[in-house]
Structures are given as structure tokens and as C-alpha cells.
Write a sequence for this structure.
């Protein structure tokens, strides 16, 4: 009985690794509108700060929490096909904070590790700008008459949703380089979705490719950590 309890207690190996660093990448965003608006993906760079705390190695799984604070230019780019020749793009500048559970398999200190991460994300709307082209501007033939979005700032300044992704990490004595692909599914509507509102849904849908560099502030001691 005593031996089995000791074995169970040793299944998880305690870790106390804390790292901070920088992150940057490329985002491809659309808005999930209802009624629908035809769009192309709006592409923009993103950048920010990242931190990670590794708390445990459970069997072969390295468990961590990753916290990021990043600037992102979201919004959308319309695909206008009504013969007007108009073009339209909207920049929505956000400060975002993903809080992700991260699991890794592979080397901790020297070598390669594969990653899976998922968790909530919140964003704060900072500012926006419209880019209208193809004068004269004519909205009379827009599909379904959907023109409510023009000239309208978001009703809700807080964005929230779920982020998840995969990645690979290379670790060395000078730090960790992470290459990550991530998808963000917005749950909150940025325009009023009540009966008085113009849209039943208006949420961000974001694909992201990014690179993160982390350097260790605190490291777990032990010669058996590879």
C-alpha cells in the first residue's frame, strides 16, 4: 500500500520554469457577420510580449501556462462584386491577451518539442479606420442591402473568445524559439446583436502564424532534465 502511494506521487515531476520574451507574426482575419458580407482575408502583422510558466512533467507531457500581451490589427476586407468598382477595408486595432494551457512532448532544455495550446483570449478595442476606394462611392446595389457597417464604430469595445493552436519549439542554452500556428474563434459580438441592432453576429475569426523567443528567468535544477 505504501509503495503504491509513493509510485502514484512520483508520476508527476515538479517543474518551476519561468520565461519571458517577445512574439511577432502575421494574422489573417475575417469577420463572421450575420447577415453575411463577402470578404477576403485581411492580412496584418502583429507583435507583443510573452511569458510562460512550466509547472509539471506528467509522464511524457510537459504542462505549462502561457500568457501573452499583443497588438493586432484586425477588421475585414470586403469583396464587392456589385459592379460599382468600390473597394473597402476596415482596420480595427486591438490589444489582446491570450491565456493558454500549453502541453509539450519532447526535449525540455536542448532540442525539439511539439506543442498544443488552447485557452481563452480577451481583447480591448483601441481605434479604427476605414479605407474606401473606387469613387464614386455607390452602395445602392450591395447584396441584401447590407450597408450598416459603413462609418460605424464597434458598439462593444471588449472582444473575447477561444484560441487554440499547434507549434514546435527549439530549446538551447540561450533560450527557446517557438513557431506556432493558431486559430481564434470570437464569441463576443462587436456590434449590437439585440433586436435593435443591425447584425445578429459580428465576431472576429483569426488565423495566425507567429514566432516567439523566450529566455529563462527561473529554471528547475536537476541533471535528469533533458
Amino acid at each position: 500500500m505504501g509503495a503504491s502511494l509513493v509510485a502514484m506521487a512520483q508520476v508527476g515531476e515538479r517543474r518551476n520554469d519561468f520565461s519571458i520574451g517577445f512574439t511577432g507574426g502575421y494574422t489573417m482575419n475575417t469577420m463572421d457577420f450575420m447577415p453575411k458580407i463577402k470578404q477576403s482575408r485581411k492580412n496584418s502583422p502583429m507583435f507583443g510580449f510573452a511569458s510562460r510558466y512550466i509547472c509539471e512533467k506528467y509522464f511524457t507531457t510537459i504542462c505549462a501556462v502561457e500568457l501573452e500581451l499583443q497588438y493586432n490589427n484586425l477588421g475585414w476586407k470586403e469583396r464587392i462584386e456589385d459592379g460599382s468598382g468600390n473597394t473597402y477595408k476596415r482596420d480595427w486595432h486591438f490589444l489582446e491577451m491570450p491565456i493558454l494551457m500549453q502541453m509539450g512532448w519532447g526535449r525540455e532544455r536542448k532540442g525539439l518539442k511539439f506543442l498544443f495550446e488552447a485557452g481563452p483570449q480577451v481583447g480591448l478595442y483601441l481605434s479604427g479606420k476605414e479605407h474606401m476606394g473606387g469613387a464614386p462611392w455607390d452602395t445602392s446595389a450591395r447584396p441584401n442591402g447590407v450597408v450598416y457597417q459603413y462609418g460605424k464604430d464597434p458598439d462593444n469595445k471588449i472582444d473575447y473568445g477561444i484560441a487554440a493552436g499547434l507549434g514546435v519549439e527549439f530549446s538551447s542554452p540561450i533560450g527557446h524559439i517557438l513557431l506556432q500556428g493558431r486559430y481564434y474563434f470570437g464569441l463576443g459580438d462587436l456590434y449590437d446583436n439585440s433586436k435593435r441592432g443591425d447584425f445578429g453576429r459580428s465576431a472576429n475569426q483569426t488565423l495566425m502564424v507567429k514566432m516567439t523567443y523566450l529566455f529563462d528567468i527561473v529554471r528547475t535544477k536537476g541533471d535528469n532534465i533533458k
Notes: The longest strand covers residues 12-34. Confidence is low (pLDDT under 50) at residues 1-9. The chain is about 5% helix and 65% strand. Residues 12-217 form a domain with the Porin fold (CATH 2.40.160.20).
